[in-house]
Amino acid sequence: MYSSQFDGGAFVSSQSPDSSIAKTRGNRSTTIPLTVKQITDAYESSSQKSELIIDGVDIGNIVLVGMVCNKASRATDVTFTLDDGTGRMDFIRWVNDAADSSETAIIENGMYVSIVGSFKGFNERKRATAFAIRPIKDHNQIVLHFIQSIRMHLENTKSKVGSLSQTQQSFVNESSFSSGYKEPQTPISNYTSVNSKAPGSETDIYKMVLDVLQEPSSLASEHGIHVDEVVQRLGLPAKKIKEAIDYHVDVGHIYSTIDDFHFKSALGD
């Protein structure tokens, strides 16, 4: 069954990074559909192991689809290997609460899943971090993912600066990866408490910002909430709001969606 889903359709490419191309989106990217082959080729050919650059684009969050293998569960985390037909990649999914436990409990070896995760810290751990795992119920989603990966590759290599932002937005709009992503970072303590590492007097603002992003209306929105709306709701300086958002992105509490101005909470569905 597994071979029939992927044979002949897997997308592979050489990913030699072009040092002359500026990073397209700075330190943060929207979620991008990729294959394991793309990621491993880019990693092995790059001199900057702390970063992942594919087709001239600095990759933030990654989306992969494939079959789960070698799942191992512990009280604090679940590790597994994802095989997408182009290669295999190890993942860790941190388990911090009952919702995390419920999400990981239904995942079984041999199951096809979609994963949203982060490559951050791969150099030290030799595994990526998954912050959302969703079983695939319609196998057309696998085909769609590879089509999206190919299209993204063609767009980026055709014009590495060109209409990239528009292309990435179209992928997010078309993709079924739209809610409930979670991104715990390597020390797990980063994810345990919003207040534990928020700097001093900024703690209240940071909490207020996160509260807005965790409101039911914000969670229900496919694209999250715009920075300007957060500013309007809280009536605080835009600079302070942006600092709080940057903090929450850095520690994995929230993530950008269709552009660098829309954000969604990763802490709850």
TrEMBL record:
- Keyword annotations of the record: DNA damage, DNA recombination, DNA repair, DNA replication, DNA-binding, Nucleus
DNA damage listed as a keyword: yes
Among Pfam families, the record links this protein to:
RPA_C (PF08784)
What main location does UniProt list?
nucleus
Gene Ontology terms, cellular component aspect? Answer: chromosome, telomeric region; DNA replication factor A complex; site of double-strand break
SUPFAM superfamilies per the UniProt record, alphabetical: Nucleic acid-binding proteins, Winged helix' DNA-binding domain
**Region of interest: Disordered:** 1-26
Q: Which GO terms describe its molecular function?
A: single-stranded DNA binding
Q: What is the annotated localization of this protein?
A: Nucleus
Task: Please verify whether the record's keywords include Nucleotidyltransferase.
Answer: no
GO biological process, alphabetically ordered: DNA replication; double-strand break repair via homologous recombination; nucleotide-excision repair
Role according to the record: Component of the replication protein A complex (RPA) required for DNA recombination, repair and replication. The activity of RPA is mediated by single-stranded DNA binding and protein interactions.
What's the family? Belongs to the replication factor A protein 2 family.
Q: What name appears for this protein in its UniProt entry?
A: Replication protein A C-terminal domain-containing protein
Species for this entry: Rhynchospora tenuis
